[in-house]
Amino acid sequence: MKPAANPFHPDLQRAARLIPNITATRPLLAVMRFLMRFQSTPRAPEDVAVEDVQVPGSAGAPPVRVRTYRPRRTVQGPTPALLWIHGGGYIMGRPEQDDVLCVEFARELGIFVASVDYRLAPEHPFPAPLEDCYAALRWLFAQAGALSVLPERIAIGGASAGGGLTAALAQLAHDRKEVRPTFQLLVYPMLDDRTTTRTDIDGTSHRAWNQGSNVFGWRAYLGREPGGAEVPAHAVPSRREDLSGLPPAWLGVGTCDLFHDEDLAYARRLEAAGVPCDVAVVPGAFHGFDVITRSAGVARDFRGLYTAALRRALFPSSGVA
After folding, report:
1. Among 105-109, 167-171, 317-321, where is mean pLDDT lowest?
2. Does 168 reside within a domain?
């Protein structure tokens, strides 16, 4: 019998063989969080100022730590900004894990970047993580003048669960009508708890985040079994029926990503609702490939795509592709 073709992109095949198939559980979560705190962080760059600030939380909630990145080079006048939301399945992660990426955004685009240290499930289920992100976004708008930020050019973005929170934040901001981000950057976002109930998924090509972890993450975030008939408003972005009026979006995902189908379905629904949504599908790419295999050509190209999308959204008159 002829063996099945390798599903992974040539740049990712070696990494795909080495990544262990680990499913998140409550005991393992404590270990994973502990190890993440000892991840090496890059040396503070000379050309980008990095600072941690405490911003007011939502009513009755504690302050939210926001990690900011600002290019040191002289910029004439206020700049656009990006509110970035880290990934981690709603159950782990911290802004420091994306230091390299946020520094690159600030350096390459000449923008102010704020990364949110939101509370994590299961200790803090929905709506706490989303409310923390909303508090950070509201702070960014309220302090736009002091931060030398253009309030009409504030984008939101995130990867994985951070992408899911980005999509939910766009919906929440639309409904509350206090602040309006100009763009949403959705990097392989975790959007739909109903994926946990699918029995037709072949998970052999999934890496970094499998169906078992997906069930655990959504259960922790929702505080109930995922995939049920109803969920609270804004908890699951893909459950929202009316997507009209949301900010334009860019969405990228790999064909070997557990979120591939739910992501493309959401992108199609955005377009159908009149929301422009550019889509990038990377053949043979697994979840988080641009971080796990950062130096691979396909990873660099992918980052280049979403950086260019952010540039177009924040500098619409520049004419830069």
Report:
1. 317-321
2. yes
Give the residue among 87, 23, 29 at the shortest CA–CA distance from 290: 87
Closest CA to 289 of 250, 253, 249: 253
In the chain, the amino acid numbered 181 is: P
Our answer to whether residue 287 is catalytic in this structure is yes
Cα(117)–Cα(55) distance, integer angstroms? 11
262 or 28: which carries more pLDDT confidence? 262
Residue 103 has pLDDT above 60, yes or no: yes
Give the span between the Cα atoms of 101 and 80, in whole angstroms.
Answer: 17
Number of domains observed in the structure of the chain: 1
**Torsions phi, psi of 173, nearest 5?**
-65, -40
Choose, from 86, 98, 99, 160, the residue flagged as catalytic: 160
Confidence of residue 45 (pLDDT cuts 50, 70, 90): confident
Residue 94 sits in a domain of what CATH number? 3.40.50.1820
Residue from 11, 117, 287, 290 carrying the catalytic annotation: 287
Prior bond of 127 cis (ω within 30°): yes
What is the spatial distance between Cα 51 and Cα 121, in angstroms, rounded to a whole number? 25
| Residue the block writes with tokens 């981690």 | 88
Catalytic: 160? Answer: yes
Q: Give a yes or no: residue 262 inside a domain.
A: yes
Whole-prediction pTM? 0.94
302-319 residue pLDDT tens: 999 999 999 999 999 865
50 inside domain: no
Among residues 98, 132, 257, 263, which one is catalytic?
257
Task: Locate 54 and state its tokens.
Answer: 């405490």
How many other C-beta atoms can be found within 10 angstroms of the C-beta atom of residue 30?
A: 11
Tell whether 69 is covered by a domain: yes
Q: Per DSSP, which regions of the chain are E strands?
A: 48-55, 64-71, 79-85, 112-117, 149-159, 183-187, 249-254, 277-282
Domain encompassing residue 87: 12-20+61-197+205-314
What token pair was written down for 52? 């941690």
112 and 79 Cβ atoms separated by less than 8 Å: yes
Is 206 tagged catalytic?
Answer: no
